Amino acid sequence: MRRTALLTSLLLCCLASSAFATDDRFGIHRPVPPKGYGDPPQSATLVGGDTFATATPIPALPYVDTGNTCTFTNDYDPPCVGEIHSARDVVYSFAPNANVCVDISLCGSGYDTEVVVYQNNVGTPVACQDDSPTCGLQSRLSNVPLIAGNTYYIVVDGYAASTGSFLLTITPPAGAGTCASPTVLPAGGGSVLGATSGSSGVAGTCGGAGAPEKVFSWTPTRSGVATLQTCSTTQTTYDTVLYLRDTTCAGAELACNDDTAGCGTTTDVSNPHRGSKVTPTVTAGHTYVVVVDGYGADSGSFSLTVTAPP
User: Is the pTM of this model over 0.70?
Assistant: First the structure.
């Protein structure tokens, strides 16, 4: 009987201790989730971006990507809040070739996010945030310093066990986006968020003489008809003007548009079409300047989408 009682006690002790795990980074104990909790379904195929080793590389800034954390695993625990964490995460990597400060946003995602940035490894994070003051339960980091010669890992995560669809936007410093220093768009196109403020530095033939602007440069890798537009009913908040110049702001104007029917940013009856769209023919390897401007003196936030030739 004594031997049976002793064995029973040891068994209970082992079971109790196995219910907790130590987080070596923070020296705390937390309950271990049930087996399979936080892991993808057995039928799911893990893709690039699941860990640091398979992180999705970011080729250039600005960068925009969408995805869903549901098919990934829980590999990293953001220290932003210290909650019991089991949310699945997605990892991106970026190796800057020059020192730069960036804004990293998950605003517009479909769940309660967290975002954390590590330098080279999973040690102390460079930056981490749970809820942003500007977009509620989503996360946004401003002016994160990235130093050339290092690789930075950006982990898209969730609060507690939250998972879902995400919108990741990484933009260069607010000082970029002028004729002297245009923001470089990815060769394959994509979407970028921005905002205009201040005074006017350049204007198109269809408008923009009194409004501030943001200037981008784009060098497509394919020739053909491209589509550039600010048609967003949620992320473009003012009456835009959009134009394309050859090589620099002083180059020949190749296209200009103020309002495009069906490209409305507001629903007011008097002027429902305030977004702008141009469809120029572009040549692979040639650099174009894309200017997001405003009608009259209008300014605000915008979403610029560039669709490269097929």
Answer: no
